[in-house]
Amino acid sequence: MAPYLLFLALGLVALVQVSLIPALGISPVPPDPMLVIVVAWGVLRGARSAMIWALIAGLWLDLLSSGPFGAYTLGLLAAAGIAGFGSGTIYRSHWILALVMVAVATVAQDLIFVALLWLGQRPVSLPDTLTRLVLPEILYNMALMLLVFPLLSWVSRITGRERLPVE
Predict the structure, then answer these.
(1) How far apart are CA 85 and CA 67, in angstroms?
(2) At what angle do helices 71-87 and 47-64 cross, to 10 degrees?
(3) What pLDDT, in 10s, does the model give residues 113-163?
(4) Nearest residue to 83 (alpha-carbon basis) of 112, 51, 118
(5) pTM of this prediction?
(6) First and final C-alpha spacing in the chain
């Protein structure tokens, strides 16, 4: 995939995530499509490729969101590492692995976000955050993974082992 196309595609997803999804008001806890995309790509192509996607995606989200700058980038880089760890298994392209990885990555990303809020001296209740925000987000992200994983599997097959210049 051409680097400029990847950059624009991830920017479009970031824009949808920070503006359109909250505006729809479907749920007080929206899914995290960028996390799902990074994890799916990490399961399919490994940590190295997913780290590049996570860096681009995280910077887009940090620029467009109102959260602490760097929170999305750190969270997505951690998610890419988690997904890359899972990609080393025999069942690399199996959707069950992708579901497990997105659940673990959601918890990791949210804990990083909460830690940065806490370090910024914003009031945070960890038990309340885990029960009211993280658990529903895990379910939404797993449901979204069922849609995203087959699509990115197809993209992975079409592009073969094409790599970005920095890989």
Answers:
(1) 28
(2) 160
(3) 888 888 877 777 777 777 778 899 999 999 999 999 999 988 888 887 666
(4) 51
(5) 0.89
(6) 12
